[in-house]
Every structure is written in C-alpha cells, then in structure tokens.
Design a protein that fits this description.
By secondary structure, the chain is mainly α. The protein has four helices and three strands, in the order H-H-E-E-E-H-H. It is extended, with a radius of gyration of 23 Å. GO terms for molecular function: transferase activity.
C-alpha cells in the first residue's frame, strides 16, 4: 500500500481481555509460522498514531510511518528471535528474584548517597557553570 491505512475503533484490551490477548499473542509469536504474504513484503502500512502496542503484534509484517511521514520502519515478526528473547527475559527475571534480598539491602544501604543533593549535583553537573551563562 502506498498510503498508511487508518484503523478505526478498537481500543486497548483491558482486564481479562488483556490476559487473553497476551496469551494468544505470545503463543502466536512463539510458534506460528510467518504468513507467505509477510515474507514478500509488509502486510499493512500504518500511520504512526495507529501503530499501538495492541495493533502492531496482529501483523506478521507491518510498515509504520513516522510522525512526519518522511520515513517508515518495517516490523517483521521473528518466532526464533522471539523465543530466544523471551527465554532470556525469563532467566534474567529469575536471577533478579533469586538475588532480591541482597539487591534490596544494597540499594537501601546506598539510598542516602544515591538521593543526596551532592550526588544529583555531580550527576547533572549543576556545580559546573552552564555553557552560555555568566557566572554571578
């Protein structure tokens, strides 16, 4: 398609519908093969304002225009990459949960330093004169 398609209606899934949508989408992205149309080119062309988080995953391949309409980005579903990244995210989450007591203790111990005005001043360089401003 030459021009982005505008989609009407259909808001984000909520409540139980969101859980059903998530389960169906994860299963599809992990195990369903790509459609033949998706391997030839984008199945759809969406305007950026219509490329919502619940719309883009419904396509195997979709071209999304940027806000100015001067460029577009191709999103193509990749089941192998999806499974690998899903597994990585599960493993990382397990690691965080396993180390949570130590991480919590370390963060709490560092909290006075992390949130001190001196740390913020160093982080954002407010103790340095800003470019283009005269020192008073």
């Amino acid at each position: 398609p030459d021009k982005p398609q505008r989609r009407r209606g259909g808001g984000a899934p909520a409540g139980i519908a969101r859980l059903v949508w998530l389960a169906r989408t994860v299963a599809r992205h992990a195990f369903a093969p790509l459609s033949k149309a998706a391997t030839r080119g984008p199945e759809a062309h969406l305007a950026f304002e219509d490329a919502r988080w619940w719309v883009v995953p419904s396509c195997d391949s979709v071209l999304v225009s940027n806000a100015e309409g001067s460029a577009a980005l191709l999103h193509r579903r990749d089941p192998v990459l999806f499974r690998r990244m899903l597994w990585t995210s599960i493993v990382l989450r397990w690691r965080i949960l396993a180390r949570w007591p130590q991480l919590k203790a370390a963060y709490r111990a560092a909290l006075p330093t992390v949130t001190s005005p001196e740390t913020w001043a160093r982080t954002f360089g407010v103790d340095q004169p800003q470019a283009g401003r005269r020192k008073k």
